[in-house]
Write a structure and sequence with these properties.
Layout lengths: L9 E2 L38 E3 L2 H5 L8 E8 L5 E4 L5 E9 L10 E9 L10 H7 L4 H4 L4 E11 L5 E4 L6 E6 L6 E2 L10 H6 L4 E10 L9 E4 L7 E4 L1 H6 L11 E10 L5 E3 L6 E3 L1
Parallel strand pairs: 2-3, 6-8, 10-11, 13-15
Antiparallel strand pairs: 1-4, 3-5, 3-7, 4-5, 5-6, 7-8, 7-9, 11-12, 11-14, 12-13, 14-15, 14-16
């Protein structure tokens, strides 16, 4: 799994608000990637056999880790997430897709990622502005929410059991135009309690919706999250507003005791297991 540090991550693309980032000092991007810096080791990717499959089959364990695969899905993340590796030597990019299905399931989501070493500008540490600049022509960066994509990359299962597809060179993603709407899975907050590692491992990148819930633990300071559960239920899901605060830097979560008809987001294992709200429309008041 690509771990994240909340203090180093921001999103793409053009309307990106860069917070907690050093002043920009980027060289012009060529739009290409030097394979010697590709942390996935894809120098010989073109020589590997590619297996056509589905996101559900990958999540069902029908392909071993390390298999080159090709899948289609619809982008459910609002934009690409960029962060810096803990050793400050690499840029990391993440996006999420889901397999369209008449009956959505918790096995429909998949994490796409790319990581590449990048030299910092002189007298500066590596920062997200630089990562954004060098990636400006890469499909992993330009991937558009709601579009159907064909993805070719290496399927990986981390030692902790997290599944993802590494896309070589930040490419391997073909835009097929607007896709069909992905319907969220109706889920129970008790199944997505923060700290439930198994749930967020098994259902990583699932688009879930909690209905008829009440807000609690609303944070008016960083990280600006909140929890939800049906009234009188103790098992609460933790919601993250990081996507929202990129587009609206002063966005604040709903206050405690707000009644919601529903709230929708992407289930991710970050920070012990949280659900990432994508847009304000994911929060529906009662």
């Amino acid at each position: 799994m690509v771990s994240r540090s909340m203090y180093s991550k921001v999103f793409a693309p053009g309307w990106l608000r860069v917070a907690l980032v050093l002043a920009m000092g980027c060289r012009p991007s060529t739009g290409s990637v030097d394979d010697s810096d590709d942390l996935g080791g894809f120098r010989d990717a073109s020589m590997q056999m590619v297996h056509d499959t589905t996101v559900r089959d990958l999540n069902a364990g029908r392909h071993p880790s390390g298999t080159m695969v090709r899948v289609t899905g619809v982008v459910i993340s609002p934009f690409t997430w960029i962060d810096i590796s803990p050793d400050q030597t690499a840029c990391r990019y993440s996006a999420y897709i889901a397999q369209p299905a008449p009956s959505p399931s918790l096995a429909d989501g998949m994490h796409l990622y790319f990581a590449r070493r990048e030299m910092p500008a002189p007298d500066m540490g590596l920062n997200v502005s630089r990562c954004r600049e060098v990636a400006r022509d890469w499909p992993i960066y330009t991937i558009a929410s709601g579009h159907k994509v064909e993805v070719t990359g290496r399927f990986e299962i981390s030692p902790a059991g997290y599944r993802q597809i590494f896309v070589p060179g930040g490419g391997g993603i073909k835009d097929l135009g607007m896709g069909e709407a992905i319907q969220p899975v109706e889920a129970a907050t008790r199944d997505f309690v923060n700290g439930n590692a198994a749930a967020f491992r098994d259902h990583k990148a699932a688009l879930v919706r909690f209905s008829n819930v009440r807000v609690s633990d609303s944070q008016t300071m960083f990280p600006y999250g909140f929890k939800v559960a049906p009234p009188n239920q103790m098992d609460k899901a933790t919601m993250t507003t990081s996507y929202l605060r990129v587009r609206t830097s002063n966005y604040m979560p709903p206050p405690n005791d707000t009644e919601l008809a529903s709230v929708t987001g992407i289930a991710l294992p970050d920070f012990g297991g949280t659900v990432w709200i994508r847009t304000p429309q994911d929060i529906v008041p009662r």
